[in-house]
Amino acid sequence: MVKKARLIYNPASGHEELPQKVADILDILEQAGYEASAFRTKPEPNSAKNEASRCADAGFDLVVAAGGDGTINEVVNGIAPKERRPRMAVIPGGTTNDYARALKIPRDDLVAAAKVILRGKTQKMDIGLAGDTYFMNIAASGSLADLTYGVPSEVKSALGYTAYLIKGAEMLPKVTSHKMRLTYDGGVYEGPVSMFLLGMTNSIGGFERIMPDAQLSDGYFQLIVVKTDNSVEMLRLMVQALNGQHTQDPDIIYTKTKQFKAEVLDDHDQHLPVNLDGENGGKLPMTFHNLQQRIEFYIG
Q1: What residues act catalytically?
Q2: pLDDT tens digit string along 231-243?
Q3: What is the CB neighbour count within 10 angstroms for residue 259?
Q4: 286: which of 6, 87, 263, 271 is 20 to 30 A away, CA to CA?
Q5: Fold adopted by 3-120
Q6: Is the pLDDT of residue 208 over 80?
């Protein structure tokens, strides 16, 4: 039988180069043995998710997500709930491209990224489930987590992950903690939290040392909890995180877990927003599950 591939691409991602490369990408898919076609995402919500869901139901063998991490997240959400899940490939067209970085896919050449498929190397990747929404890289909440999705898109386009550093320095004086109850495999923490991060790869906001022990297919989240909201201590932690030296700090919980539940105990603010792969993903309380090796990806 002929294998079918669908390219789902976001024309507005990054520097808007993707539309010019569609023909080249489709040609590479044909070289890889796929009968290939393309779908250009539309401005309305869930355009990429709905098309990915349709492709899974229609029996496509491969879905290629071309765009930023938000586009990849949408495609994952279209495929992950299915019993029969096509393979995925990633062509990074965004600014930070955390997931492509983790998969060792070229991030500065769209055609080179597509050629990863020709090598035929794949890996089954863990996918996170937060409530009823899926994510492939990061779940976060707390006032510090605003840093991940509080940077305007035009600033990201101009500065890349430098924007996060600038935003972080700007936000430090505004960081507050919330009393939370966090339940994970190793126990329960109840106390002040300025941020928690559930990571599935080692790349967050362009930094590769925040989750130094992350594995891609082991069924575990890496969990980081930042307890302090003191600006001086936060600055120290930021410097340590750049060097991967933050995991032993007394203001940090760093562990791994297959499941995680987060509840806010503050009476005045019990419904903090949750960030999933850089996008708004609902509000706490929320339970998170790691779905081990849920989707098979082409990797570099």
Answers
A1: 279
A2: 666 666 666 666 6
A3: 14
A4: 87
A5: Rossmann fold (3.40.50)
A6: no
